[in-house]
Each structure stands twice: as structure tokens, then as C-alpha cells.
TrEMBL record:
Coiled-coil stretches: none
Similarity remark: Belongs to the MnmA/TRMU family.
Record localization: Cytoplasm
Ranges of residues in domain tRNA-specific 2-thiouridylase MnmA-like C-terminal: 292-373
UniProt-listed GO biological process terms: tRNA wobble position uridine thiolation
Record protein name field: tRNA-specific 2-thiouridylase MnmA
Organism: Methylobacterium durans
Family annotation (CDD domains): MnmA_TRMU-like (cd01998)
Catalytic center residues: 112, 211
């Protein structure tokens, strides 16, 4: 077996590297080339890169495509740019807008990995007779057993960089073809390697924003995509008492405190959004506490079928910035429902967010899958269930 757990010498192993133009994927390409693999770089043009050429913190656009091309030239590997704008708009941007208008808090990076990078790009890699598709994600994968072609997904070595939350939707078949060479490296080592390899992107800042949402201004993007979608409505408390008015629920997210412009003498938070009535429901922080979460579109990476799994102790992550917390997984095969019950309530859990499921809450825990949050049950009486 070579370093990618494939039964070929590196020079006979073709690896397609998804090159975003950043330091992480560039180092992956450089390391694999140095190890003797037959490396092919592919960069995806995902949206109108002309408008974002000079914007810092973007990915897969403008300057990033140029940077990826320069890295490929430095390494002496073939490099291709694929125009996936239409696919990205249909699969990611439009779904993001629809979810946001439904009062949800979508995670478009999960859908991009699921629908674009690990479906369409992976198919392209196979068309190129590649043996694997490698990315710069900070997540680890290892064979389920020595010599096995089936692989399991784990949190990265560097907990501050771990991206497993965004990759829970990777299917077992995709996982067998994917490789994540940075999963066992800390970020500072990645930058050191970039300098050692002589890559011009060694000091390039990491992307911070969702690529098509400049400076995190979600409402601006929704207003541009759906100009007639913002409807004014009422701001009410959990009992239905009107406290004020707003100019559209697209300006609010669950857990938000600032920008409510309410003079009621106590801190209030957005508890839920009701798109059918265009109402923003607010309440005290205690009303944000959630103990039971219903999941949809569940992807299961654990052993055996999910349908045969009894109530099972797991750990879950409801936001990328939070560590996994102990919970119990309950799947009802008759009703076709999957729920997690949190051992300790979480604040600010919103429909549309991702819930990643782990075997435990340890730093190198195995990823068992996850799903999209469809309903949350609040603890406080009077904090009504979100639809």
C-alpha cells in the first residue's frame, strides 16, 4: 500500500486534487507531487468570478483561480478550470435562498460538498481515470480494517481546524474514493510546508466568508436573488404580544440579539421565525434552550443500517464553532424519523442548520454521519415548537 492506502506505487497512482487557490489545497498538491504521484489539479469556477476578483476571503473565484494556476505551474502539474457556475447556482445558491426565506439558517458549504465537490467533481475525477480525489479539508479518513477498501471518517488532528462538521454528508462510496492528506497536520505545519515547497500562497489568508456572501451579509444576497421576497411583519413575544415591526425575516436569525430595536427593558433574542405569518418571535435567552432535535436527510456512516440501531449514545455538533456534546440518537424506522436528545441543552439551534453525529466527544472521534435540523423542541414552557 502507498501513503494513500492504494495498492499501487505512487508513480502509477493518479490523484485529482481539488485546488481552491488557497494554501491548504495547494500544499496537498505539492505533497503528493513530491511523493511521486501522478497529480492533476482541478479548480472549480463556482460563481461570477469577475465580481469577486479583488475581494479578500473568497474562494473558487477570480484571484483564487489565478493563484491555483500559479501553484500548478510551480509544481509542474496539469491544471484545469471547470465552469460549474450553473450547477452551483442550482444546487447551492438557489437552495440557500429558499431555505433562508423559509425561516431557516442553511449551511451552504455542506450542500456544496455534497452536490458539487463530492458528486460532480468526483465523477469528473473518475472520468480522468483517477484512483482518488484529494482535498485540503482538515478531516481524517482511515481504512475500517487493515487492507480494507472501506474507510471511516474522523475529526482532524488540529481541533481548531477540524472541518468534519461540513463533511458529515459524505457517502460511504464517496469516502472510499476521497483522501484528506491534511487531516493529520496542524495548520502551522501546513504553512511551513507551503514555504518549503516555494508556493506563493504560503501566507495567503484563509477564506472566512461563504464564497457568495460578502462580509457575511446574508440579507443582501437574498434581496438580490429574490427582490420581492422580503415582507414586513410583526415582532412578537412568545405569548403573541406585539412588540414592534420589522422589514423582513431575512434580516434575522435564531439566537440574534442585536438589531431588534425594541425598548422593553430586558435583553431579548430571536427564538424562531414564522415565514407563513412573517413574524419574528423573540424572548429571553432561556427560551433558546433546546434539548430535542428532529433531523432530516440523514446520512449514516456508522456500522450497520440505521434502521436496526437501538437508542444509541453519541455526541453531536449543532454549529461548526461548538465542540461535540453528548446526546442520545433515536431512530424510528416505522415513522422514518431520526432525533437526537441532548444531555445538556444547547442555545440558538435553528432549523436548516447541520447536526453532525460523532461516536463520542473526544478530539479524534469518528464521524457517524448527520442530518439537516428540521425541528427543535424548546425547554421553556411557552417557547413554542418551531415548525
Amino acid at each position: 500500500m502507498n501513503s494513500l492506502d492504494l495498492p499501487k506505487p505512487p508513480q502509477e497512482t493518479r490523484v485529482v486534487v481539488a485546488m481552491s487557490g488557497g494554501v491548504d489545497s495547494s500544499v496537498v498538491a505539492g505533497l503528493l507531487k513530491r511523493q511521486g504521484y501522478d497529480v492533476v489539479g482541478i479548480t472549480l469556477q463556482l460563481y461570477d468570478h469577475g465580481a469577486a476578483t479583488h475581494r479578500k476571503g473568497a474562494c473558487c473565484a477570480g484571484q483564487d483561480i489565478h493563484d491555483a494556476r500559479r501553484v500548478a505551474e510551480r509544481l509542474g502539474i496539469p491544471h484545469y478550470v471547470l465552469d460549474y457556475e450553473d450547477r452551483f447556482r442550482d444546487a447551492v445558491i438557489d437552495r440557500f435562498a429558499e431555505s433562508y426565506l423559509a425561516g431557516e439558517t442553511p449551511i451552504p458549504c455542506v450542500e456544496c460538498n455534497r452536490s458539487i465537490k463530492f458528486r460532480d467533481l468526483l465523477a469528473t475525477a473518475r472520468d480522468l481515470d483517477a484512483d482518488a480525489l484529494a482535498t485540503g479539508h482538515y478531516v481524517a479518513s482511515r481504512p475500517l480494517a487493515p487492507g480494507s477498501s472501506r474507510r471511516a471518517l474522523y475529526r482532524a488532528l488540529d481541533p481548531a481546524r477540524d472541518q468534519s462538521y461540513f463533511l458529515y454528508a459524505t457517502t460511504p462510496e464517496q469516502l472510499d474514493f476521497l483522501r484528506f492528506p491534511l487531516g493529520e497536520l496542524p495548520k502551522d505545519e501546513t504553512r511551513r510546508l507551503a514555504r518549503e515547497l516555494g508556493l506563493a500562497v504560503a501566507e495567503k489568508p484563509d477564506s472566512q466568508d461563504i464564497c457568495f456572501v460578502p462580509q457575511g451579509r446574508y440579507a443582501d444576497v437574498i434581496a438580490r436573488l429574490r427582490p420581492d421576497a422580503a415582507h414586513p411583519g410583526e415582532i412578537v413575544d412568545t405569548s403573541g404580544r406585539v412588540l414592534g415591526r420589522h422589514e423582513g425575516i431575512i434580516h434575522y436569525t435564531v439566537g440574534q440579539r442585536r438589531g431588534l430595536r425594541l425598548a422593553v427593558g430586558e435583553p431579548l433574542y430571536v427564538i424562531r421565525l414564522e415565514p407563513e405569518t412573517a413574524r419574528v418571535v423573540v424572548g429571553p435567552r432561556a427560551a433558546l434552550a433546546t434539548s430535542r432535535i428532529r433531523l432530516d436527510a440523514v446520512n449514516w456512516l456508522g456500522e450497520g443500517p440505521l434502521d436496526g440501531l437501538p437508542d444509541h449514545p453519541v455526541a453531536v455538533r449543532v454549529r461548526s464553532t461548538r465542540e461535540p456534546r453528548p446526546a442520545t440518537l433515536h431512530h424510528d424506522p416505522v415513522a422514518g424519523t431520526t432525533e437526537v436528545v441532548l444531555a445538556t441543552p444547547e442555545d440558538g439551534v435553528s432549523p436548516g442548520q447541520a447536526c453532525a453525529i460523532y461516536a463520542d466527544d473526544g478530539p479524534r472521534a469518528r464521524v457517524l454521519g448527520g442530518g439537516t435540523i428540521r425541528r427543535v423542541d424548546a425547554l421553556q414552557a411557552g417557547a413554542a415548537r418551531a415548525a
